[in-house]
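FAQ: What does the model actually see?

It sees only this:
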Amino acid sequence: MSRQENLLERLKHPEDRFTERKPKGVSTEDKCKTLVAFANSLPDGEEGILFIGVSDKGDILGLDNTDNLQKEMRKLAEQRCYPPIRIQSEVLNISGLEVVAVSVLPSRNRPHFTGPAYVRIGSESCEATEQMLTELIASRTDEGRLLLKYRDEQTEILVEHGLPQHSQRMRCFVAECDSHFVGFKTMAGGGIFRLPLKRLSISWENSQRKPLITEQVG
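And it is asked to produce this:
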């Protein structure tokens, strides 16, 4: 399937976490809000698409000047969003009417701001809470991003911590993660203990087929 065919297929889908539709008169604030929400929320391997020139119900309304709109979107992404957001845009011609599809790629520089920081919750762009901001900062590192993924997917993991001669290994879930600490919930008693993120390494335990989180001590 070509890129254009893929976008046309996405346009048929209802709005969700990865798809947003706006008419041609959408405000600058709303455009920036959507770009930031996508950049702050997209997992690796996904892209968010903002279709402009389309009603929220999917009716094709068209645009008058797609070239100017594409230049405006690039300027907004680079100058009104901080840190700048990577986008690409292209024009779709549907039954003689032109629509712009703006693609937002996953970002490792989040959280992004344009005033408040926004994230995608379902099909809406919502203002990020303080907890969401700490998680966005944690997701800048490979370890933080992977641990948050384990938390969201409720992945069972193994955690090995303590001094080498007295280390212990436990089956856990990730309960929380910020830029400094990770909270692990034990499967045995349900209690939560925290370890410094910067001291943790992530590998794979072949014998049990589970992620292994190891605390580097000393």
